[in-house]
Fold this sequence. Notes:
This protein is α/β, with parallel strands linked by helices.
Amino acid sequence: MNPNQMAVQEAARFMQEHDRFLVLSHVSPDGDATGSALGVVLMLEQLGKEYVVVNEGETPIKFNFLPRFDRLYNLRKQSLNETFGAVIAVDCADESRMGDVRSLFASGAALLNIDHHPTNDHFGTVNLVRPDAAATAEILFDVAEAAGVSFNEELALCIYTGLLTDTGGFRYSNTSPRVMEIAARLLGYGVKPGDVAERCLEEITFAHVKVLRRALQTLQLSHQNLVASITVSAADFAEVGAEREDAGGLVNYCRNIEGVEVGVSFVEAELGVVKVSMRARDRVDVAVIAKQLGGGGHAKAAGCTIKGPLSEVQQKVWTVLDDAVGVKFDE
C-alpha cells in the first residue's frame, strides 16, 4: 500500500471512529469546496454520524441544487453555542482559509485535513493532501470507497460538481484521465452533466453583468503587457446592488487576453478588505505569489485576501509581481 492509499485509509478511519463532526470548507467557497463539504456530509449520514456543516460566510446561491445545501450554517449570520472535538476541513489551502470557524474547535480537537493545494501547510491531526489531484472532490471519491460508502445520485452530484468546477468544465490542464474516469462513473448514478454545467458555469445573475460592466472599465495592461488586471471597489458593489459572489470569474477576462501571462482581479466587496485572484498561463507560478501575500492555491490559479486601502493592496501585489514576471510595473 503506497502513502496515498494509507492516507486515504486513515481519513476513512477518522470518519468511522468519531461520532459528531464539524464540517467546513474555505472562506468564499467555490464549487469544489461546497461540493466536497456536502459530499462529506452525505458520507457521514451513511455512516450513522452526526454533523454540523459551517462556513464563515455566505455560500453562493448557485450551488443550492446540491443536496443538504439548506444545512449550511453561515457563521456571520447564525450563531452556534457548541464546540466540536472532531473536525473535517475540506479544500482549505492552509489553516487561515478556515476563517472564524476555528472558534468552534474544542481544545485539543482532532482535525482531518483533506485538500489538493500544493501550498497546504498540513495543519490537521490527520492530513490527506494530494497536490496531484485535480480537486478535493477527486480525493473524496477515494475516501468514500475506502469508507465503504454506497454511491448514489446525491453523493455523485456533489463530487461531480467539485470535479467540473475545479477543472473549468474539464478544460484546464489538471483534467487527467483519472478525472474523466471518475466523472464517467458518477454519470452512471444519474448525474445530468448539462444541468450541472448550466448552473455552475453558464448561468449568471444580472448583478454580475452590472459588476462586469464596471470592472471592464478598469481593465489595464502592465508589466509590458504581460499582466492584465481588473478592479471592483466597495463603492461599485453598493452602486449596482451586487454581492460578493456576483464578481466571480472576473479574473478570467484578464488572463484570456492574448499575450498576457498573468491575470489579476482586485475585488473589494467589503471596504478595506480586498480579495485578490490570480490566473497564470505558463511563465509564472501564482501560487508562490499568493503565498508571499498570505494566501495560496495552484501554480495557475491562486489568490489571497489582503486588508487595507485598495490602492495599497494593488501596490503590494505589483511589487511581488515585479520579481515574478521579471518586469517592473508600468501602466
